[in-house]
Amino acid sequence: MSRGCALQLLSHPSLTAAQLRQLHAHLLTSSTHLADRFLPNNLLREASPHRALALFPRLRRILPAFLPNNYTFSFLLTAAAAAFPAPPPSERRLVCSLHALAVALGWDAHIYVSNGLIHAYAARGHLASSRRVFDDACNRDACSWISLFTAYNGAGQLDDARALFEEMPHKTPVAWSAMLSAYVGAGGFADALEVFDRMLRARVRPNRAAIVGALAACAALGALEQGRWVHALVAAPGRSQMDGMVATTLVDMYAKCGSLDAATQVFEAMPERQRDVFAYTAMISGLSDHGRCREAIELFHTMQDRGVRPNQVTFICVLSACARAGGGLVDVAKEIFRTMATVHGVKPGVEHYGSMVDVLGRAGLLAEAVALVRTMPMRPDSYVLGALLNACRLHGGDVELGKELVEWLAELGLDHSGVHVQLSNMYAGSSKWEDVLRVRTVMEEKKVTKVPGCSMVEVDGVACEFVASDLSLDPWIMTVVRDLDEHLRLLGHDFLHLEELLKNRLFGRPEENQTKPKNVRTHLVVS
User: Fold this and answer.
1) What percentage of residues in the chain have a pLDDT greater than 70?
2) Which of 337, 342, 358, 486 has the fewest Cβ atoms within 10 Å of its own Cβ atom?
3) How far is 241 from 245, CA to CA, in rounded Å?
4) 205 DSSP 8-state letter
5) Do the Cβ atoms of 482 and 459 come closer than 8 Å?
C-alpha cells in the first residue's frame, strides 16, 4: 500500500483504533520522508470541510514531523468558515485553536493565513475578533478588506461597512459593487445609485454586479430616465456586459418603471440561449403587472414549448396574472396550480396558495377560497389571510368570516392597520355601527396607526418621494397649489380653495395631527 493510499484512508471517519495503529505503523516504515507537506495538504484541500477538520488532528498525531504551513492553515480556515452547523461553544474554540497554532508556528502574519482568520472569525459571527485580526495584520490586500466588509454587510452593520469602504486605500470594482449591492439588499436604493455615480466619477469601470445593482435600484425607485442611462452605458460600443443577467434585469427595470414596450424590446432582442427561466419570469411578471394577463399566460406556455422549466417564482407570477384577469382565468389558474407538482416538479408553497386564494377570491368563489385555506398543508401567512379578507370585503361582506380572519391574523402578530380598517369597512357596509366603533376603539387602544400613503416621481434625474399627511412640505409645493387654485377659480369652480383644502388635509383637527411622518425626500440619482 502506498503512503498516499494510507493517507487517503485516514480521511474515513469510521476507522477503528486498531486500523489507525496499522496505518500509523505503515507510515512509520514508509521510505517517504514524513515531513513532506504535499500529500497531507492535498488531502486537506480535497476533503469536505467537516472531514478536513477531523483529519487534521489525526495527521498531527500519526505524523509528528508534519508541520503545517501557510497552505495548511489556508485550507483549514476555509473549512472552518464553511463547516456549518456546529455547536456554538465549539465554533469560537475551533478558529481560536487554529489561530493559536498559527501564532506558535509563526504563520499568523502570512497574508493567506490572516485573510483566512478574518474570514473564519466573521463566518462564525465573531466580528470583533475578525476586526482585531484585520487591524493587527502586517499585510493587507483587497481580499482582507472585502472579507471584513462582507462580514459587516452580512451582519447588517451597514454603517460599519460604509466606514470601512471609505477607509479603503484602493477601491477595486469588487469593492464598489459590494458596497452598492449592500445598499440594494438593505433597501437603500438612493444610496446605491449615489455609490454607482461615485464609482463612475472615479473612472472605475462597473462590473456586472454593479450594473445589476444599479438597475435594481432604478427599478425600486421608478427612476426610468436613470435606468435608460445605465442601459445606454451597458450598450455602448466596446462594452461586452449585455449578458443574460443584465438583459433580464433591464426587462425587470423597464417593466417596474412603467415602460413595458421597452421591456418587451429588450426581451425580444435577447438571443434564444439567454432566455432562461429568469428572463421569462421577469417578462411574465411585467405583463401581469401591466394588466396584460392573457399575454402573460401565453408567454408561460411559450417558455414550456421552448424547453424552459418554470420555477417557483414563475408560478407565483402566472397565478398573479390569473388573479388580475378578474375571474376570466380561474380554470386556467386551477390547471396550473394542479400541475405544479405532478408535471413540473415544483411543490406549491404558501405563496402559491396565497395566489390561488386571490384568484378564487377576486372571482367571487369565496367558499372555494375558504376551503383551500383550510386544507393547506402549511400554516397560512398574512398574504393568504389578507387575500381571503379582501375577498370577503369585495363579495358578500361576510363579516363573521372577516372577524375570524382578523383574529387569526392577530394570533400570528400580523393584525396591522390595514386589516382593522378592512374589517371596519365590512361592518360599515353591513350597517353594524356598534361593531365599527368597537374596531376603531381597539385600534386606538392598541395604538394601531394607518400606514400613510406614499408616491414617487422622477423629475430631471431627481426621484422625489411624497408621503401623505406630512408637515414638512417644501415651499414650492404650496406655490404650485396656489397656482392650481387660481386656474380653477378662473374656470368658475366655486368651492373651498385648494390651498385651504390641502391645509385641512395636512393639519386637520388638533387630535388628528399627532404623528406625522416626514414627507418629501429628494434623492439625487445618477447624474
Assistant:
1) 69
2) 342
3) 9
4) P
5) no
Rounded to an integer, what distance in angstroms lies between the CA atom of residue 472 and that of residue 459?
Answer: 20
The DSSP line for 111-169 is: HHHHHHHHHHHHHTT-HHHHHHHHHH-S---HHHHHHHHHHHHHTT-HHHHHHHHHH-S
Query: How many whole angstroms separate alpha carbon 501 and alpha carbon 505?
Result: 6
Q: How many CB atoms are closer than 10 A to CB 328?
A: 11
**Angle of the 111-123 helix axis to the 127-136 helix axis, nearest 10:** 160
If one counts every other C-beta atom within 10 angstroms of the C-beta of residue 114, the result is 28
d(CA 444, CA 55): 63
Distance CA 293, CA 299 (A): 10
pLDDT digits (tens, 9 = 90+) for 192-223: 999 999 999 999 999 999 999 999 999 999 99
Each residue's pLDDT tens digit, 345-397: 999 999 999 999 999 888 888 888 888 988 889 888 777 877 877 777 776 55
How far apart CA 408 and CA 411 sit, in angstroms, is 5
The x, y and z cell numbers of residue 325, run together, are 384577469
Q: 282: number of CA atoms within 13 Å, CB side?
A: 27
Give dist(CA 214, CA 200) in Å, integer.
Answer: 12
Torsion of CA 200, 206, 211, 216, to 10 degrees: -60
Amino acid code (one letter) for 139: N
Predicted confidence at residue 518, as pLDDT, reads 37
Q: Are the C-beta atoms of 382 and 414 separated by less than 8 Å?
A: yes
The Cα–Cα gap between 2 and 9 comes to 11
pLDDT bracket for residue 82 (50, 70, 90):
confident
Check if the beta carbon of residue 266 is closer than 8 Å to that of residue 260. no
Q: How far is CA 457 from CA 207, 252, 371, 527, in A?
A: 28, 18, 42, 16
24, pLDDT greater than 80: no
pLDDT at 523 > cutoff 80? no
Contacts of 104 (CB under 8 A, 6+ apart): none
Rounded to 10°, the helix 417-429/399-411 angle is: 170
How many angstroms separate the CA atoms of 405 and 373, rounded?
Answer: 11
| Nearest CA-CA partner of 135 in 167, 100, 112 | 167
Q: Where are the alpha helices (DSSP H) in 306-396?
A: 312-324, 330-342, 350-362, 366-374, 382-394
Q: Residue 383 and residue 389: Cα distance in Å, rounded?
A: 10
Whole-angstrom distance, CA of residue 74 vs CA of residue 260: 50
Provide the β-strand partners of residue 464: 457, 522
Neighbours of 526 (CB within 10 A): 21
pLDDT in tens, 4-17: 555 555 555 555 55
